[in-house]
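User: Here's a chain of 481 residues. Predict its fold as tokens.
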Amino acid sequence: MRRQPGRPSWRFALVALAAVVVLGFNFGARGLLTNDDTRFPVMARDVLVNGHWLLPALPDGKPHLVKPPLVVWLIALASWPAGAVSVRTAVLPSLLEAIGVVLVTYGLGRRLFGGDAAVVAGLTVSTTVGIYSMAHSSMPDMAQLLAVMGAMLAYVASGFGRRRGGLVAFYGLIGVGSLAKGAAGFLPLAIALADTLTSEGTRGLKRLVSLPGFILLAALAVPWWIVAAASGGQDRFVGGVVYNDQLFWYFLRESWGWRTFLEPLGHALAILVPWVLVLPFAARRALREDDPETARRTRLLLVWLVTVFVFMAVSGNQRERYYLPLCPAAALLVGWWYSTLAWRARARGFAAAWVVVVAVGAVAVKVHTPRFNATTDLSAVRAVLARAPAPLYSTDVPELVLSFNLDRPVLINPSYRAFERMVREGKPGYLIISDRVLATQAGDTCMSRVARGLATRREFTMLDPKGCGARASSPGAPRSG
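Assistant: Prediction complete.
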């Protein structure tokens, strides 16, 4: 029988403690070594250094208009006390958001199915691969997921749309989610629409209408996009950002094939490891539920899972992290299934399985982290810059990885020859170029090789243009005032 939510209990304390311990494990040890993971910390650094709070910029000075800056603001605020953005301050917001996701999952489970199911759901979601990995990332996915969970809790608390006050909070949290990832922030609305249609048909849709909620959503979501459109130009912004980076990025595939079906399924299964093994049993039990009230609640979770999977699967740009909203729904379903088991030893059995999952995960993280960090080595570049600092340019090397980890702007350079022409015009600097591109240069190069390194598994060479003509000078050469 469902238990009504009451005061916080030992169950809440247990889930909160487990979330902090599990998700905080190895905090800050894993480097930020991809352009995706370093993009938002680099913009947060721009906020702290240049004060570009409204339209944070990348190293080339251009505002980044693809996504709203909520995550950039959070990273900047976390980094403000130290005055600099580090790996720890960059991922701290995601860690806190992940803990929040676990606690909201517990709260939603308690409201839907009672305390036992809520505890298992909270402990389950905290140990999924997706939640743990994104808790140590600086990308906006965890911020969006926390907004999704808050919106779904408001939806359930409103009696599935029957109470207007809950709907206002529902739409407000959708607005917050849109500030994290744009169009993807509207995912709770898609889930609520699908849930209402499957439960009551089109006649139930009018319950989701809330004028105050719509106003709050617009007040949160629209202003930044207006500023961004004014900054980027209407044609460029609408065509390049709204259509290509928001709508077409998520909801358009250029071609269909066998990978169209297998790739999304692989991502969905991978992000739910290890609890994906018991999810089929929970889903089977939910489909056979006889009690109308319980069936209504489990149907919400099934609709949630299907809606998220379908929306993400149709996208031509597949990323495992896009399926992150599956994790709480799957955990809630597993928690409910656990509460229906008649085994006397179910608590001890789940506890033993959970401890094994945590232990195996801890070992895997400790083994994987140094191997992952070894995919980038910038020590030789740092040594050169310490002796003779100069502007940096990159060709076929992740420039944001270099910018963040070297703590200085690195600009994209289209080719070796383009850089050579630039330095012949009297603009000194270093070129960091991938070895595979450097190997294609015909004849002798006029630049000296001053360092070797590795960036995101890509081998590169650092070039000093001191031999590129009389007008070019070595970055370390003295200059007249």
